[in-house]
């Protein structure tokens, strides 16, 4: 069975996916433009944009954490399906359930650890952009929380319900 599409699920899940997709695209475009500007300034104008590297790193962190929720909602994280494919349908459902439960537990641990990191960096400022460092690091608990939420909201849509390989190319 294929992974659920972005058009499946309740309207709230579809709306959240649409917002997260738009935000991911905007973040990707922002750091793409910053990298292009930095290359242009460095190699054409023989100058450097002092804030570009830190800006790109920060937006990449946010982009990865936001997009991880989209990947989780589609059950598209990398996984080894060999054991799944060898099992009968009941065993396959059990393996998928355990994998989803472990992924959810990891997300919740990441939320907790991210909150701890934000707390430790509350009064620090970034050297180039001069923004609070917690603003960058809060992406970790926010992204992990979104991922956990979307995993719970799409739990029933998990692929590999026992009707063939999870990979549609097999």
Residues in helix, %: 55-70%
Low-confidence stretches: 160-166
The averaged pLDDT comes out at 84
What is the rounded Rg?
A: 20 Å
Q: What general form does the structure show?
A: elongated
- Could you tell me how far the N terminus lies from the C terminus, measured between alpha carbons in angstroms? 11 Å
Binned strand content: under 5%
Please, how many helices?
A: 6
Brief synopsis:
With 170 residues, this protein is an all-alpha fold. The protein has helices at 11-43, 52-73, 82-86, 89-120, 133-137, 139-153.
Walk me through this protein's architecture.
Helix 1 (11-43) runs antiparallel to helix 2 (52-73), helix 2 runs parallel beside helix 6 (139-153) and helix 4 (89-120) packs antiparallel against helix 6 (139-153). The model is unreliable at 160-166 (pLDDT under 50). It is built from six helices and no strands. It has helices at 11-43, 52-73, 82-86, 89-120, 133-137, 139-153.
Helix and strand arrangement:
Elements: H1 11-43, H2 52-73, H3 82-86, H4 89-120, H5 133-137, H6 139-153
Helix pairs in contact: 1-2, 2-6, 4-6
Q: What key phrases describe this protein's structure?
A:
elongated, mainly alpha, 6 helices
